[in-house]
Automatic annotation (TrEMBL), chain A:
Pfam families to which the protein is assigned, alphabetical: Radical_SAM, SPASM
Function: Catalyzes the cross-linking of a glutamate residue and a tyrosine residue in the PqqA protein as part of the biosynthesis of pyrroloquinoline quinone (PQQ).
Keywords (A to Z) from UniProt: 4Fe-4S, Iron, Iron-sulfur, Metal-binding, Oxidoreductase, PQQ biosynthesis, S-adenosyl-L-methionine
Species lineage: Bacteria, Pseudomonadati, Pseudomonadota, Gammaproteobacteria, Salinisphaerales
Biological process according to GO: molybdopterin cofactor biosynthetic process; pyrroloquinoline quinone biosynthetic process
The protein's name in its UniProt record: PqqA peptide cyclase
Gene behind this protein: pqqE
TrEMBL record, chain B:
Highest taxon of source: Bacteria
InterPro entries hit by this protein: PQQD (IPR008792), PqqD_bac (IPR022479), PqqD_sf (IPR041881)
Family of this protein: Belongs to the PqqD family.
Name this polypeptide is given: PqqA binding protein
Function in brief: Functions as a PqqA binding protein and presents PqqA to PqqE, in the pyrroloquinoline quinone (PQQ) biosynthetic pathway.
Protein's pathway: Cofactor biosynthesis; pyrroloquinoline quinone biosynthesis
Subunit structure: Monomer. Interacts with PqqE.
GO biological process: pyrroloquinoline quinone biosynthetic process
UniProt GO molecular function: quinone binding
UniProt KW keywords: PQQ biosynthesis
Organism, scientific name: Salinisphaera japonica YTM-1
Length: 386, 93
């Protein structure tokens, strides 16, 4: 998310942003997907009425932005109905899609249902690489859909996840966005959650690659380029963590396909926290009262060095999921922080990514996101899980 | 960014993709746009709710002035509109 929701510091925390992950099903297999790798084990999807309940209750609490994502939300046949209900309730709705499962009629039906905004993702700037990374022949379809979105009167927001295998194409990526008449382009470096975590060694770019991409982006802006480019840097190359979700349970409410309410899309993996089911509890209780949403609120849960750090108000100690994935301790300082005693866990990976030949990256093939690999990865519960 | 030029005859409207609405939960107006939202204070609300794409800026000033006992509000209106334009919330013409 490039433009965080701004809100009044005085007002009490509200779930202003509702992210509805309608399904984990997706026709694509992006190896950088941030969906949980255990997706094959996740329970049945909620019904249309379940989603209506979520929309209604979150709206009563003040939710105003509605993200419709997945997986691929177009897989849900009731997407139009969910959009219409969101519009009726007064949400500003944003569809986050790969464009697969779309046709012109569906774009128009969504617009008619009151959809405010569409963001379409591309894997790369040419068919060969796009199709390799997506695991299917989808490039032409995506381009056609990007044009259909524009023709329906929407601003065109392209999202491209950058990593080692496509970041050097940055010039081409920008040129492709130009040729599609994009208005906004999100050049988002991979965040290492879910499938991307498994493929870290394969996906992490070198410092040189990153600098090159950043300088091309800056040059485009300096030359007065028409499109607005957002460049999201990978936090592995920084020495302070991101203010993840602007704080736990402060702004974001993520509802997963199986009805789990989560403070962020990756939180399911955190051990010992029982995340509430939206079908068993109302959103007000979940947001205000549930132990899960209060678990990392405030600063009392922090250990050193965060606890006595003056910067804790800026970054809340970083990402809990990243702390857990890297150190096994979800209370630890996010290792991205140079003050973290485990910062070497980041710098080691970065050093390896910058080594002349990364032996590990060669040896380990890319794991594509699909149900088969999900089952394979979770045949036996990995260490550190409940 | 260059300073946006606004004339008395300019017509301001909420930019495409942006929506001004009243939020019952917060008891205030907000401006919603892709992946973002600003909570509006009272002066901003008075101004933006009158920028309907028809009225001139001069008319907006008159209407607000009438609401506030004839006070001269034009400096505030112009200053806020310049800010709103530079943020992309409002467009002229
Ligand atoms: S990242 Fe790729 S695989 Fe994952 S949901 Fe998006 S399009 Fe599907
Ligand atoms: S020590 Fe903790 S609070 Fe301080 S900058 Fe690092 S992550 Fe942030």
């Amino acid at each position: 998310m490039t433009q965080p929701l701004r809100h009044d510091a005085q007002t009490i925390a509200r779930p202003l942003w509702l992210l509805a992950e309608l399904t984990y099903a997706c026709p694509l297999q992006c190896p950088y997907c941030s969906n949980p790798t255990e997706m094959a084990q996740i329970g049945a999807e909620m019904t249309t009425d379940d989603w209506f309940k979520v929309l209604r209750e979150a709206r009563e609490l003040g939710a105003a932005q509605l993200g419709l994502s997945g997986g691929e939300p177009l897989v849900r046949r009731d997407l139009e109905a969910i959009v219409a209900e969101g519009a009726r309730l007064g949400y500003y709705s944003n569809l986050i899609t790969s464009g697969i499962g779309m046709d012109e009629a569906r774009v128009n039906a969504l617009a008619e249902a009151g959809l405010d905004h569409i963001q379409i993702s591309f894997q790369a700037s040419n068919a060969e690489r796009n199709n390799f990374l997506a695991g299917s022949n989808t490039f032409e379809q995506k381009k056609a859909m990007a044009r259909a979105i524009k023709a329906a009167g929407y601003p065109m927001v392209l999202n491209i996840v950058l990593h080692r295998h496509n970041i050097d194409d940055i010039d081409d990526i920008i040129a492709m966005a130009e040729s599609l008449d994009a208005d906004y382009v999100e050049l988002a470096n991979t965040q290492y959650y879910g499938w991307a975590w498994h493929n870290r060694a394969q996906l992490l770019p070198t410092r040189e690659q990153l600098n090159h991409a950043e300088s091309v982006t800056t040059r485009y802006r300096d030359n007065g380029g028409r499109m607005k480019l957002y460049f999201v840097v990978p936090d592995y190359y920084q020495d302070r963590p991101k203010a993840c979700m602007s704080g736990w349970g402060d702004l974001f409410l993520n509802v997963a396909p199986d009805g789990l309410a989560l403070p962020c899309h990756a939180a399911r993996q955190l051990p010992g926290i029982e995340f509430p089911d939206v079908r068993e509890h109302d959103i007000a209780w979940i947001w205000n009262e549930s132990p899960a949403f209060n678990h990392f609120r405030g600063f009392d849960w922090m250990a050193e060095p965060c606890r006595s750090c003056v910067e804790k108000h800026d970054d809340f100690g970083g990402c809990r999921c990243q702390a857990f994935m890297l150190t096994g301790d979800m209370y630890a300082t996010d290792p991205v922080c140079a003050k973290s005693p485990s910062h070497h866990l980041i710098t080691d990976v970065v050093a390896e990514a910058n080594a002349p030949t990364s032996a590990r990256a060669e040896a380990q093939p890319i794991v594509f996101r699909n149900p088969k690999n999900s089952k394979r990865l979770h045949a036996t519960p990995p260490a550190g899980e409940r | 960014m260059s300073r946006p030029v606004i004339h008395a005859t300019s017509v301001a409207r909420i930019a495409r993709g942006h929506r001004l609405q009243y939020e019952p939960a917060q008891d205030c107006h907000v401006l919603l746009y892709p992946e973002g939202m600003v909570t509006l204070n009272e002066p901003a609300t008075e101004i933006l709710t009158r920028c309907d794409g028809q009225r001139s800026v001069a008319t907006v000033c008159e209407l607000i002035s009438a609401e506030f006992g004839g006070a001269d509000v034009s400096d505030d209106v112009y200053e806020f509109l310049r800010l709103a334009i530079s943020h992309g919330w409002v467009v002229i013409g």
